[in-house]
Amino acid sequence: MIDTAFLITSFVTLFVIIDPIGLMPVFLALTQGMTSKQRRAIAIRASITGVGILAVFALFGESVLGFIGISMPAFRVAGGILLFLTALDMLFERRTARRQHQGDEIAPEDDPSVFPMAIPLIAGPGSIATVILLTGQHPGIEGFASVMAIVVAVIALMLGMFSISGLLERLLGPVGINVATRLLGMLLAALSVQFVLEGLRAFGFAS
Q1: What is the pTM of this model?
Q2: What is the structure's pLDDT at 43?
Q3: Domain locations in the chain?
Q4: Share of the chain residues as helix, strand and coil, in percent rounded to the nearest 5
C-alpha cells in the first residue's frame, strides 16, 4: 500500500514544480486575443499532452532519454533555449502581430498548446525528473498509478485555473494585458536562462 505521507508529499512537490497558479497568467499572455473556445481547446490539448509526456517518463524514466543518447542536463539546456525564443516573442509582441493578420484562425506555429505550454512549462525538466524520482521510490504498477493520479489531479487544478483566464483578461484590460505580457516575457526569459545554467552546471561548465 502507498502511504498517505508519500501521496501528500508527491502532490505538494508536483504542484510547486508545475505551478498552476504561476502558469495561469502565462497562459493568458500566450493566448492573448483568442476566444474562450480557442483558449479552452488549447488548455485541453496542453493538459492531455503534458499528462501523456509525464506518463511516458514515469513508466520508462531516464531510459527514454538514454536510449537516444540525451542526458537530463542536455534536455534542460534545450528546453531553456526554446523557452527563451518564446520569451522574445512575448517581449516584442510577435504573437499578437501574427494573430491580427490571421483573424480567428490560429496558425499551427502560433498554437502554444504543445510548446511552450505542455513542453517545457507543464512537462519540463523539473516535473519529468520529479515523476522519475517518485516512481523510483515505489516501483511497479501501484506506484505508477499513484504518481499518475497525482499528476492528473495537479493538471486538473491547472485546467480549472485556465478556465477563468478570460475573467482575468477582462479585469486587466488591453493596457494591463500588454504590461503583463511584457513582464511575463522577461520572467520567462530569466527562467529559460536558469534552465540553461542548471544544465551547464551539471556538465561542469558553470559554478
Answers
A1: 0.71
A2: 95
A3: 4-95+111-201
A4: 85, 0, 15
Q: Residue 11, class by beta-carbon neighbours within 10 Å (0-12 exposed, 13-18 middle, 19+ buried)?
A: middle
Residue 72 is placed in which grid cell? Answer: 537530463
The predicted pLDDT at position 104 comes to 45
Nearest to 30 by CA among 150, 114, 102: 114
Alpha-carbon Rg for the chain in angstroms: 18
Alpha carbon 44 to chain centroid, angstroms: 13
Length of the chain, in residues? 207
Provide the pLDDT for residue 130: 85
- The residues near 182 (Cβ < 8 Å, ≥ 6 apart) are 90, 91
Closest among 129, 134, 162 to 148, alpha carbons compared: 134
Output the pLDDT for position 105: 47
Handedness of CA 184, 50, 116, 134 (dihedral sign): positive
Task: Give the residue from 39, 11, 17 showing the smallest Cα distance to 128.
Answer: 17
CB 168 within 8 A of CB 28: yes
**DSSP secondary structure code for residue 116 in this structure:** I
DSSP state letters, 172-190: HHHHHHHHHHHHHHHHHHH
The reported pLDDT for the residue numbered 1 is: 65
Q: What is the mean pLDDT of each run of 10 residues along the chain (207 residues)?
A: 84 86 83 87 95 93 78 79 80 58 49 90 87 84 93 94 80 76 80 84 78
